[in-house]
Amino acid sequence: MNEPIATINLDDDPSVASLAGQAAADISVQRIWLDPLPYITESGVTLPTVQVAYETWGTLNAAGDNGVYVCHALTGDSHAAGVYAGESRAGWWDALIGPGRALDTDRYFVVCANILGGCQGTTGPTSPAANGLAYGSRFPTVTVRDMVRLEYRLLVALGVQRLACVIGGSLGGMQVAEWLVCYPDFVAAAVPIAASFAHSPQGIAFSLIGRRAIEIDPDWQGGDYYGTGRSPEQGLALARMVGMISYQSDESMRRKFGRERVEADPASYYQPASRFQVENYLYYQGAQLVRRFDANSYLVLTRAMDLHDVARGRGDLAAGLARVTARTLVLGINSDLLFPTRLQQEMAAALQLAGKAVQYVELDSPWGHDAFLIEHQQLTAILRPFLAAG
Fold first, then answer.
1. Which of 219, 268, 275, 343 could be joined to 279 by an S-S link, Cβ 3.0–4.6 Å?
2. Which of 301, 319, 341 is the C-terminal boundary of a domain?
3. If residue 174 lies in a helix (H) or strand (E), which one and from where to where?
4. Active site residue: 28, 78, 170, 249, which one?
5. What average pLDDT score do residues 224-237 get?
6. Which of 72, 199, 308, 369 is flagged as catalytic?
């Protein structure tokens, strides 16, 4: 029986202990899996060798059916929880993954892998091609479906027989949507967060601006900048600035920055280099991404988001969703600019129309699209009963 589609706005649940600043559960280790077979992308390009960087938490049970796969967002990576030896910064969803947490590693075998086309250990534009040189501009267009097919191969190699849940936000939520349809018998439950069954025109427009910022940087060099001593740092930084604006809300900008200035002396306000705090924040975010991310991967992954459409090649959306067998919890964020809640409501309505078990829940948050990385208490309060029901 289908559960009702209803919007639930949760305030901080006093029964959920504060997770802010909670210590990481475990030392985390990134591992590399080498696919023994060539990988053929949807575009028809064969990658002779593919490797996947991944991390795991918890233990796979004898039946192989307690796996939880966590899908990361655009500039995320496999480091979803724990800390690396000698470092102090915890993974990006550490508050949700670990003993006793929402994704309880005493119960589940949790896996997160860097996606195909990324730059954090999985094969992407920075990886060596057959001639030993980085793929660069030769790296093929990949799709969200390509990512999911490779993730499935990894999980099978790890011994997973069935996923108790697949979960992720943004680009991660797009992967969850494809998991539902690509491997229906492999997925018991799914939680797409702040995502859609097809990328919206507004989302595609934001992606284009970011890509053009990189492509018009002279140091991009058509995508073959590796080994030249130059890379499109300014273009990538600008792309990140545009992205960060789309991840915020008007309210989050007001709360974080208001009209505060960086300079304390009012006499300096009229200098060309004078900055508002919000400007300073965007410059900082651009510089931070340049230090850890590859511009070509940004191009590849944003294009994959634009191409995302669960209905593509399946006749129509209804035909695709007819394959779904998993219980699904669709999560929206009431202040999301990039993926407005209309899109998640449409996801839930389409699943219900297809006769599938689905719930729709809305995070009540001022933090915009980024709320799925911030609202740990709300997520915990929502996820625990949903997972327990399985």
1. 275
2. 301
3. helix 171-182
4. 170
5. 98
6. 369
CATH of the domain at 176: 3.40.50.1820
* CA distances to 48, 74, 353, 358 from 347, in Å: 36, 20, 10, 9
Residues 62 and 119 in one domain: yes
3-state class of 190 per DSSP? strand
Give catalytic status of residue 137 as yes or no: no
Last residue of a domain, one of 301, 319, 347: 301
The reply to whether 15 belongs to the active site is no
- Total number of domains constituting the chain: 2
pLDDT(186) > 60:
yes
Same domain, 321 and 346: yes
pLDDT by residue (tens digit) across 3-39? 333 333 333 332 223 333 334 347 889 999 999 999 9
Model pLDDT for residues 81-111, shown as the tens digit of each residue: 999 998 888 999 999 999 999 999 999 999 9
Per-residue confidence band for 390, with pLDDT thresholds at 50, 70 and 90: confident
**pLDDT over 70 for what percent of the chain?**
94
Q: Are residues 250 and 329 in the same domain?
A: no
How far is the CA of 206 from the CAs of 16, 201, 305, 327, in angstroms? 36, 9, 11, 32
Residues 35 and 130 occupy one common structural domain: yes
Residue (of 139, 290, 303, 116) closest to 224 by Cα position: 139
Structure pTM? 0.93
**Residue from 336, 365, 370, 376 carrying the catalytic annotation:** 336
* Amino acid letter, 348: A
Confirm whether 79 is a catalytic residue: no
CATH number of domain containing 210: 1.10.1740.110
Structure tokens at 292: 């850890």
Q: Is 286 exposed, middle or buried (0-12, 13-18, 19+ CB in 10 A)?
A: buried
d(CA 282, CA 327) in angstroms, rounded, equals 39
Whether 136 and 39 map to the same domain: the answer is yes
122 and 264 assigned to the same domain = no
Which pLDDT band, with edges at 50, 70 and 90, does 164 fall under?
Answer: very high
Q: Where would I find the H helices in 188-293?
A: 201-215, 233-247, 250-256, 277-292
